[in-house]
Design a protein that fits this description.
108 residues; alpha+beta; Trypsin Inhibitor V, Chain A
C-alpha cells in the first residue's frame, strides 16, 4: 500500500504547479503612449542644458529647459521621489536636491 502512495504524493505537487500555470492569464499589452510624437517633432535633447546642472530649480529655469531641449513636457523630480519608468521622447526630467539645486537633466 505504501508503494502506491509514493507516486501519487510525488505527482500531486507537479499537477498543482502545472494547473497554476494553465490558469495564469497573459500579461496585458502595454498601454499606448497617450501623447504620440510624430517623427522629428518635439523630441527632447538634454545636451544643450547640461550647463544648468548645479543651478537652482525655479519656474524660469524650467521654462528655459523646455525651450532649449525641444521637449513638450517637463517633469520635476523632488528628492527621494519615485518615478514611473515609462519613456517619452517628448519629456525632459529634472532632478533636484533638498536645496532645490538641479542634480540631473535627462530626457524620457
Amino acid at each position: 500500500m505504501m508503494h502506491r502512495l509514493v507516486p501519487v504524493a510525488l505527482a500531486a505537487p507537479a499537477a498543482l504547479a502545472a494547473a497554476g500555470c494553465a490558469m495564469a492569464e497573459p500579461a496585458p499589452a502595454p498601454a499606448p503612449n497617450p501623447n504620440p510624437v510624430e517623427p522629428g517633432q518635439m523630441v527632447c535633447d538634454a545636451g544643450p542644458v547640461q550647463n544648468l546642472v548645479g543651478e537652482k530649480a525655479t519656474p524660469e529655469i524650467g521654462e528655459r529647459i523646455l525651450s532649449e531641449t525641444g521637449a513638450r513636457t517637463l517633469r520635476w523630480g523632488p528628492p527621494r521621489s519615485a518615478w514611473t519608468m515609462d519613456y517619452r521622447v517628448d519629456r525632459v526630467n529634472v532632478r533636484y536636491d533638498d536645496d532645490m539645486v538641479i542634480e540631473a537633466i535627462t530626457c524620457g
